[in-house]
Amino acid sequence: MPILICALIVLLVSITPAWATTRYVSTTGSDANSCVASENIATPKLTPASAIACLSAGDTLYFRGGTYTTQINVTGKSGSAGSEITMASYTGETATIAPSASTGDAARALIGFSRASTGYIIFDGLVFDGVNLATGTNGNIVRGHHLTFRNIESKNWKYHGLYFEADNLIVETSIIHDQTSVTCAAGTRWYGIYFHDGANVSIQNTHFYNNPGGAIQIFPGPISAMTVQYNSMHENGSCASTDFGGMVISQGSGQTINGVTIANNLVYNNKSGVETDSHG
């Protein structure tokens, strides 16, 4: 009997899963703090890059309130189904990501450049602020899968508020506003969200306003199984050179767009409402 009991204990120990970990980053932290130390709210990391390097599937990274002058780079970072990585403002505080760099990739608040290996990440309650961006050549670009953006604010970019090439994407209860176009020339009439291609996408309960090109552009594809609903869009399309304002769905040459549902959105005081066209 003692032998059986020992065997059972060994079996239980071997199948016990590792617990997810909560970590912290703060504008008053230190990157000299180890990953283990960053599990304590009193000894956080200083920069997003150092904190993100510590994350594994199921972990939560809390950003303490304040302005972070370097970016969030999630390229190659992934959780898993049911064990997503969460990056969020700490409860009751607001974390703003406003890179001090004015040009180049370092000027982006959020980037994810590996579609296959960047996924199962939740962003919650963060502010992406492009106030320091000098030109319209860089902004927030995310290529990935199984991504959720919740309670996000994206503003002041001389670029799209958020640009996606993604599958299994959710954007909800967010505010995307006041992007700026320097010249309003073709290719620089920025949108709140530019969705380039992907499948299984939901944009809902989000407020879009004062985006110079329009609230949302869905182009060129391939795009399928996308729902845009319960959003508010107003005062978009300020560029004199644009015909759009609310939302445009446009199929690129040789591409396909199907299964897109637009429902129960409040669209008003834009240069136009909801427009569709095709380029091939």
Essential attributes:
single chain; 280 residues; mainly beta; eight-stranded parallel beta sheet; 2 helices; disordered N terminus
How would you describe what is shown here?
The chain is mainly beta and 280 residues long. The chain is built from 2 helices and 22 strands. The longest helix has 14 residues, at 2-15. It is globular, with a radius of gyration of 21 Å.
Instruction: List the helices and strands in order.
Output: HEHEEEEEEEEEEEEEEEEEEEEE
Strand content: 35-45%
Shape summary: globular
- Percent in helix: under 10%
The span between the termini is: 75 Å
Using only C-alpha atoms, the radius of gyration works out to 21 Å
Quantity of strands, as a count: 22
Largest sheet properties: 14 strands, parallel
Uncertain segments of ≥5 residues (pLDDT<50)? Answer: 1-17
| Class from secondary-structure proportions | mainly beta
Instruction: Give the helix tally.
Output: 2
- Overall mean pLDDT stands at 91
SSE topology:
Layout lengths: L1 H14 L6 E4 L22 H5 L7 E4 L2 E3 L3 E2 L11 E5 L5 E3 L12 E3 L6 E6 L1 E4 L11 E10 L2 E3 L6 E11 L2 E3 L13 E14 L2 E3 L4 E5 L4 E7 L2 E3 L12 E5 L5 E7 L2 E3 L5 E5 L2
Parallel strand pairs: 1-2, 2-5, 3-6, 4-7, 5-8, 6-9, 7-10, 8-10, 9-11, 10-12, 11-13, 12-14, 13-15, 14-16, 14-17, 15-18, 16-19, 17-20, 18-21, 19-22
